[in-house]
């Protein structure tokens, strides 16, 4: 019974990492990328997302609660799973190890990002707009922290997408898993570029 429950939780953990968290991640990075086209473009895109009907309900049940469940179970998995990269130095073992490392980094990054761009704003009079991100990322320490956070998050999603396809039985043969490895690498590079390019725009205006 316990094994079945753990199996269910891990499958749900994998599913939530792709739907809805992964979809939200891509959408969030795309909205941020509007900064590349100028301050007005970003503010319009951010304003559109802010003014969505039932935004708070959507955020709680489609974003925050899934992320919280995924994060708590993910931290549990990190501490109970044994890594064997020293003994078995295969590519997938390293991906497994990096998935756990980037999971912890992503958890810290998201917690800080939510605090900095949502909680503090709620306690003050600031708006979530271009100038807010510009002020945050003008600090070199914060800029590199965000770079690390975004790359960790995009890797965690892309590699998690590979694991999702395998654990849900979508890619079972070695050939299909190899193809998906290359496909998820392209996903990682594409969304990393989108995210990092926006950070450079906020920080340096280029």
TrEMBL record:
<feature type="transmembrane region" description="Helical">
    <location>
        <begin position="12"/>
        <end position="36"/>
    </location>
</feature>
<keyword id="KW-0408">Iron</keyword>
<dbReference type="Pfam" id="PF01127">
    <property type="entry name" value="Sdh_cyt"/>
</dbReference>
<dbReference type="InterPro" id="IPR034804">
    <property type="entry name" value="SQR/QFR_C/D"/>
</dbReference>
<dbReference type="InterPro" id="IPR000701">
    <property type="entry name" value="SuccDH_FuR_B_TM-su"/>
</dbReference>
<keyword id="KW-0812">Transmembrane</keyword>
<keyword id="KW-0479">Metal-binding</keyword>
<feature type="transmembrane region" description="Helical">
    <location>
        <begin position="179"/>
        <end position="200"/>
    </location>
</feature>
<keyword id="KW-0349">Heme</keyword>
<dbReference type="InterPro" id="IPR016002">
    <property type="entry name" value="Succ_DH_cyt_b558_Firmicute"/>
</dbReference>
<dbReference type="InterPro" id="IPR011138">
    <property type="entry name" value="Cytochrome_b-558"/>
</dbReference>
<keyword id="KW-0472">Membrane</keyword>
<protein>
    <submittedName>
        <fullName>Succinate dehydrogenase / fumarate reductase cytochrome b subunit</fullName>
    </submittedName>
</protein>
<feature type="transmembrane region" description="Helical">
    <location>
        <begin position="143"/>
        <end position="167"/>
    </location>
</feature>
<feature type="transmembrane region" description="Helical">
    <location>
        <begin position="56"/>
        <end position="82"/>
    </location>
</feature>
<feature type="transmembrane region" description="Helical">
    <location>
        <begin position="94"/>
        <end position="115"/>
    </location>
</feature>
<keyword id="KW-1133">Transmembrane helix</keyword>
